[in-house]
């Protein structure tokens, strides 16, 4: 259920506390000194730290200070030896959640841990909600398309069935999923997002369904799957269309029975999570080709929602651009306060194949380079991508005119498009020094989508 790190230089304390949390179904990690503790905190997503104040290399106070300076906000329960209560109180003043004398009483430790995790979850959900509400303008607008989308969100939130959200890249499918969750009866439960395209096939079952200790090589302890962790809330399966057919059957069984079978478990486990899935693929075409199961599609599409592309609601572009600019100004990234009429007209004339994500990235670039308080038509034209050039032919024009066959026997449109796409991607990669995240943002693509395109076009990073 949670990842808990036990940091203590006494092996018997580490072992006993680790066993206690393992039996409760948590993932318990251990560290013997301050340096090892900080190393684990840097590479693992730790939900709770049980911290001894007296440790070699760096003591507990140094660990606390480093955590706060780096923005790590996991709650901390301090373990202290007899007669060191004053130091424990000092640690609490520095941000620790609670302190216990060693050896800790198991019941008291479990109660303190449960309280710390509950408080941390509420704080995290509050921050997540604020982050969702802050850019909520991406779901607002006066267009008929957005009014229809709001109605669909309300309809889905009122029901309890599975929801399938479809739409192009960058349209805000996850924001729609979060809005459905926030308006539903499960709003007080967790919202867990899983990018199915980023999950390797060999880890898919382990991540979603969990595993028992010893279920496979490297399974050193029990892991709770995402289905169980989303109990009482919503499990969001993004890029559902990327799941291989062999795994689709196992997902379908989980949805049909609302039970999961952790790897190595003796019996299935009942789960209570609402499923919201999203994809930018045409699943009906995928069904026709056999790439996506028909029964899984209908199991997911109980309540379908289609997110409109930005080009179908151009009247919302001005309001969205103003909101993104306000956000950049609040972060201190610009002094610009608005757009000229000419700048807005240019934005509304652009098709935005990357949709809202592309608009946001473009406004951020404009904001960073703003010369004054109003973004001008000239500044906007400078950051808008040029009109698409005609793709270069795959054979010499003279060869085409004379009817001579090219290298493959004839010039093919798809070859021309492939070459043009390859050139555009290489140019963007060079411009961004092969930094994939920046390149994906500029092109308005999901990073996973960019990786797939590079692989399909045979583009590899330079040595």
Strands side by side in the biggest sheet: 2-1-3-4-5
- CATH architecture title of the largest domain: 3-Layer(aba) Sandwich
Give the count of helical stretches.
20
Report how far the terminal alpha carbons are from each other: 41 Å
Number of strands: 16
Spell out the CATH superfamily of the largest domain: P-loop containing nucleotide triphosphate hydrolases
Tell me the number of structural domains.
4
Largest sheet: 5 strands, parallel
> Helix fraction?
40-55%
At the first level of CATH, the class of the largest domain is Alpha Beta
User: What's the average pLDDT?
Assistant: 85
Q: What general form does the structure show?
A: globular
**Which class best fits the helix and strand makeup?**
alpha/beta
Low-confidence stretches: 389-411
Please give the radius of gyration in angstroms. Answer: 26 Å
Which percent range describes the beta-strand content? 5-15%
What does this structure look like?
A five-stranded parallel β-sheet has the order 2-1-3-4-5, with helices on both faces. Strands 7-10-13-6-14 form a five-stranded parallel β-sheet. The chain is built from 20 helices and 16 strands. The chain has four domains: about 5-120, Rossmann fold (3-Layer(aba) Sandwich); about 135-305, Rossmann fold (3-Layer(aba) Sandwich), CATH 3.40.50; about 310-385, Orthogonal Bundle (Helicase, Ruva Protein, domain 3), CATH 1.10.8.60; about 395-455, Arc Repressor Mutant, subunit A (Orthogonal Bundle). The two termini are about 40 Å apart. α4 (about 85-95) links the parallel β4 (about 75-80) and β5. The chain has about 475 residues and is α/β, with parallel strands linked by helices. It is globular. The model is unreliable at about 390-410 (pLDDT under 50).
């Amino acid at each position: 259920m949670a990842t808990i790190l036990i940091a203590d230089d006494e092996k018997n304390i580490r072992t006993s506390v680790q066993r206690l949390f393992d039996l409760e179904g948590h993932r318990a990690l251990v560290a013997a000194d301050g340096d090892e503790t900080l190393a684990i905190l840097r590479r693992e997503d730790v939900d709770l730290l049980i911290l001894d104040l007296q440790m070699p290399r760096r003591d507990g106070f140094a660990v606390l200070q480093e955590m706060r300076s780096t923005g790590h906000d996991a709650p901390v329960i301090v373990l202290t030896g007899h007669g060191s209560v004053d130091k424990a109180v000092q640690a609490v003043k520095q941000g620790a959640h609670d302190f216990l004398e060693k050896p800790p009483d198991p019941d008291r430790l479990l109660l303190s841990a449960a309280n710390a995790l509950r408080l941390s979850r509420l704080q995290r959900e509050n921050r997540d909600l604020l982050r969702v509400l802050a850019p909520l303008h991406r779901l607002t607008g006066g267009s008929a398309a957005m009014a229809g989308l709001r109605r669909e969100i309300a309809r889905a939130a009122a029901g309890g069935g599975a929801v399938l959200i479809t739409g192009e890249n960058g349209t805000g499918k996850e924001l729609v999923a979060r809005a459905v969750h926030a308006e539903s009866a499960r709003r007080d439960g967790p919202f867990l997002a899983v990018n199915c395209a980023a999950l390797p096939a060999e880890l898919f079952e382990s991540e979603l369904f969990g595993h028992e200790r010893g279920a496979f090589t490297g399974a050193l302890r029990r892991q709770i799957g995402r289905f169980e962790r989303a109990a009482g809330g919503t499990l969001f399966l993004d890029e559902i269309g990327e799941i291989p057919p062999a795994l689709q059957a196992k997902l379908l069984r989980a949805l049909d029975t609302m039970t999961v079978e952790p790897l190595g478990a003796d019996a299935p486990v009942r789960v209570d999570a609402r499923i919201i899935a999203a994809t930018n693929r045409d699943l009906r075409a995928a069904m026709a080709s056999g790439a996506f199961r028909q029964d899984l599609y209908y199991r997911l599409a109980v309540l379908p929602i289609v997110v409109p592309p930005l080009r179908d609601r151009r009247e919302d572009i001005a309001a969205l651009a103003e909101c993104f600019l306000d956000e950049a100004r609040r972060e201190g990234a610009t002094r610009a306060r608005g757009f000229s009429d000419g700048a807005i007209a240019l934005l509304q004339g652009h098709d935005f194949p990357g949709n809202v994500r592309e608009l946001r990235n473009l406004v951020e670039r404009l904001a960073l380079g703003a010369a004054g308080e109003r973004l001008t038509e000239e500044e906007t034209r400078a950051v808008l991508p040029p009109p698409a050039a005609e793709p270069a032919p795959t054979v010499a024009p003279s060869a085409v005119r004379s009817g001579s066959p090219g290298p493959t026997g004839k010039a093919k449109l798809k070859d021309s498009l492939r070459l043009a796409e390859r050139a555009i991607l290489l140019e963007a990669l060079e411009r961004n020094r092969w930094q994939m995240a920046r390149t994906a943002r500029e092109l308005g693509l999901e990073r996973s989508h960019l990786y797939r395109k590079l692989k399909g076009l045979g583009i590899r990073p330079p040595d």
